[in-house]
Amino acid sequence: MIHFSNVTKFYENQAAIKNITFSVEKGEMVFMTGPSGAGKSTLLKIIYLSEKPDEGSVTIAEWDLSKLKESNIPFLRRNIGVVFQDFRLLDNRNVFDNVAIALRIRGMLEGEIQEWVMEILKMVNLRHKADSFSRALSGGEQQRVVIARAIVGEPTILLADEPTGNIDPDTAAGITRLFKEINARGTTVVVATHNRELYRNTGRRVFRLDSGNMVGEEIG
Amino acid sequence: MYLLYSFRLAFQSLWREKWINLLSVLTIAAGLFMITLTFFVVYNIDLATKRLPARFSVMLYLDDGLSEQETGSIIAQLKKNNAVEQARYIAKDKALEELKGVLKNADYILEGIDENPLPASIEIKLKKESVNIASVKKFAAEIKKIKGIAEVEYGEQFLNSIHSIKGMAKAGSLSLIIIMSAGVIFVCYSTLKIAFYRRKEEIETFKLLGATRGFIRAPFVIEGSVLGMFGGIASMAAAFAFYYVLFYKVTATIPILKILVFPLETFPALPIVGLLLGIGGAVIALGRIRFS
Ligand SMILES: Nc1ncnc2c1ncn2[C@@H]1O[C@H](COP(=O)(O)OP(=O)(O)O)[C@@H](O)[C@H]1O
Ligand SMILES: [Mg+2]
């Protein structure tokens, strides 16, 4: 589903990731870990096409990124749900609209959108907050809105960048459970985190990054 | 389709910045109104110059003592010429009579003149399309060669001035219309550029979620069309008001202005012109949408 082959990405002559090679199979759930600045976010950004690799080749869901036409980028992105580290919520809109936007860009009809969004909000336990403005929510609630928006379009790949960043351990455990549930439905999941609690005893593959290098692979 | 949602986004944005947008609409309206006035002026100049060819004639003065047969052959030759619409023979006596008619009570000037000093002449009306400097010159040169014609006379000055008035009016109005249109596009452009920057963050998120260029552009193009269209409607109202004041109020004191013509039927084009210029401004403001 995701293949990196000798991928390097530079920021102003400084490599953020160096010569990275790895694969994630369809339906897998894997973790990227390592200290802050290791290159986890950069790696995810390459997957969701926010950054272009400078060297090496990347294939996502059978699409060779070096051959991808720019006008096709939106259609590839619709297969990839992203839980952004900085959330990227629309703060002048309510929770419903924040989740619905993922379906509106796909041109889905409002009637259908209503149904789908409410169902997903129930799944992340935010149905009662549908009309609240996103900036009025707690960190954990905002995190769940972002997850709801990432999965509402039923993507084949779900990427999560530090999904338990600033939330309490209980909520974090709930979020891990949610990812497992989504993964169990067949979605390929990649979670970038420096929080060991997230992958401990999951039995999933964990890739370890340090200063842009892939320094190891273990089972969590 | 996402268009319904695009309309929602567009109207939300228009409403959120309603005062700035109102100002833009009024500016667009002012620009379009100036374009309308320019058009009005040019239209009337054009009408006036179109009426002039009917008054234009070429006079041919004939040699003295031509026989009736010779005169007849000259007239026949003239009538064969493609440029000629009408040829009227004015005999010597008729010319004198006409002169007396013009002089009326001052005809004592002619007293004491025994012999008619006026030559016989032919007054020629040219076809409309031949009333221009080049054709008239060519025509004059041609007919001067006909035997029996002493002199050819026409208002060269008159033709030249029509020509230059038309030319100046066309060039002036065209540049004014272009400048004003560019101004209207610029107003739409800057209004939408501001709207675009205000929503930059949101647009970035839309892109990351998989929005197409069309989805991103549509609300702005709709906003541009709405601004332009409302500007057009406002300018149409202003043009009707101008028409009313000019033809019902001002003509009461200056009746000569009644000869002006206001092409009312072109007014409904204003909202459409505004809309198109608004779309133009929006497209320029958006530029190329990039995904990476
Ligand atoms: N936009 C950027 N411009 C310059 N340097 C960057 C940029 N984004 C990331 N970096 C650098 O790349 C390296 C990897 O960053 P990142 O991928 O965010 O690490 P992580 O997510 O593991 O904390 C860091 O040294 C960071 O400073
Ligand atoms: Mg990071």
Task: Report on this structure.
The complex is a heterodimer of chains A (220) and B (292). Helices cover 32% and strands 28% of the residues of chain A. With 220 residues, chain A is an alpha/beta fold. In chain A, the strands form two sheets. Chain A has a six-stranded mixed sheet with strand order 6-7-8-3-9-10, sandwiched between helices. Chain A has a four-stranded antiparallel sheet with strand order 2-1-4-5, covered by helices on one side. The radius of gyration of chain A is 17 Å and the shape is globular. The two termini of chain A are 21 Å apart. Chain B has nine helices and four strands. Chain B has a four-stranded antiparallel sheet with strand order 2-3-1-4. Chain B is elongated, with a radius of gyration of 31 Å. The two termini of chain B are 25 Å apart. The model of chain B has no long low-confidence stretch (mean pLDDT 88). Adenosine-5'-diphosphate binds at residues 11-12, 16, 34, 36-42 of chain A.
In short:
Chain A is an alpha/beta fold. Chain A contains 7 helices and 10 strands.
In whole angstroms, how far apart are the ends of chain B? Answer: 25 Å
- Order of helices and strands of chain B, N to C? HHEHEHEHEHHHH
As an assembly, this protein is: heterodimer
Q: Terminal Cα separation of chain A, in Å?
A: 21 Å
What radius of gyration of chain B results from the CA coordinates?
A: 31 Å
Strand coverage percent of chain B: 5-15%
Q: Low-confidence stretches of chain B at least 5 residues in length (pLDDT < 50)?
A: none
Kindly state the percentage of residues in helix of chain A: 25-40%
Q: How much of the sequence of chain A is in beta strands? A: 25-35%
Assign the structural class of chain A, choosing from mainly alpha, mainly beta, alpha/beta, alpha+beta, or little secondary structure: alpha/beta
Total strands of chain B:
4
Based on Cα principal axes, name the global outline of chain A.
Answer: globular
Low-confidence stretches of chain A: none
